[in-house]
Amino acid sequence: MSSTDTYDFYKNCCSDFFESFEMFENEDILLDAIKAYCDSPSEGTSQDIYSAYLITYRMPGLKELITQMQKYEVLSSRLMAKHRDHFEHTINVFLLGLSIYQSNHSLRQAVDNKLVYADKYPSIKEEFLFRWGLTALFHDVGYPLEIAYGTIKEFATKLIDPCLSLQDDVIQNSNDSSSYQAPIAVLNFPNLNDITHINYLNPKPAFADEYHIKYPNLKNNLPDNSLSLIANFISNLGFTSQDKILQIIKDSIENGLENGRVDHGIFSAIILLKWANQAYSKANWNPAYYYYPIADSATAIFLHNTYGYLFQEPPYSLSPLNVQSNPLAFLLILCDKAQETNRQSYGYEGRSVEFSQSNLVISNDIFNLTLLVSLDDNTLAGLKAGEIERSINKTVDVNSVFHDFRIVIEN
What we know:
It is a single chain. This protein is an alpha+beta fold. The protein has helices at residues 6-19, 29-39, 43-56, 63-75, 87-103, 105-114, 124-137, 143-160, 192-196, 208-214, 226-235, 242-258, 264-283, 288-311, 327-338, 379-395, and strands at 4-5, 83-84, 164-167, 170-173, 345-346, 357-362, 366-372, 404-410. Strand 6 (357-362) and strand 7 (366-372) form a beta hairpin. The protein starts with a strand and ends with a strand.
């Protein structure tokens, strides 16, 4: 397989993907939007993919989450020292994941094994498309919270805690940042349980008997808390109990809030579960659609940031995530870390390395990503590519999918 421009590669892979099965939901609209974006990547064609996906799966109201994410990161661009685009980034993560699925047998096999339940789509490919769309397109919707917390922490601490020095009888700003200072002021939630609450979802009375035969585990003791639902899915990894995982999650959130830190991945998962919960409550759809695919996607979103610092550290010290353990989380971590091109830098400090273009080679054995830079001295870019590759290898077991995995730099 020869190397090709990334967007040509996405377009070809997605075309092959959609042509390989007959969609149960609306046809053509999503593929047409993907082709248009690949021909001309822009804010407008990105919007069209979000809209097409949500119209396809009858949830256009959820686009408000994407709209607010983009609005907030652009409007706050001068408040944070450094942050980058997450709007088009999520589109590129979505397309990269579809392309890997179409090109790699090991990933498809893992998906076929894990994404099955009684009311799945007739085609496992559409089941994957539905879950991967939720996972990729909504994995950063909590970013406005992370920006807000970071902004409050930085500015409140600077304004309320003076850092002055006296030099030659002149009072000056010492600019001493050598010692860590606890934040003076942070945002907080009056009651975290209110944020994480979700409604019980029960089937229509006419379908209740059939539903409870199919899903006896959903008959009693349904979770009314999004964190409990996520902890249940993570416990399937088998390293400890659901109750212990739930406590780890709560402790992490509370410690972060006390110190002015918010993990956007955690809150993206909470937000998706909360919005989808209200949507399903109003629509009175089959609750299994919520408790299986949407909860699975939210768990992958939760894990894409937390797996490394919550579960790969003591006392659990888990190995890199294997694709068979959780294919959606595996794919999101890989795509999120690898997707470096076409990301606008925001913030008032110096810009990060910008990769102007990329080429991809993906097959059953190979993942080779070539990042192109316009810098005369590509030393910094080379270091960045090395960091990406090391971060991916630390968090996910790439060899469970690809035997040849490389990220390289070219001028």
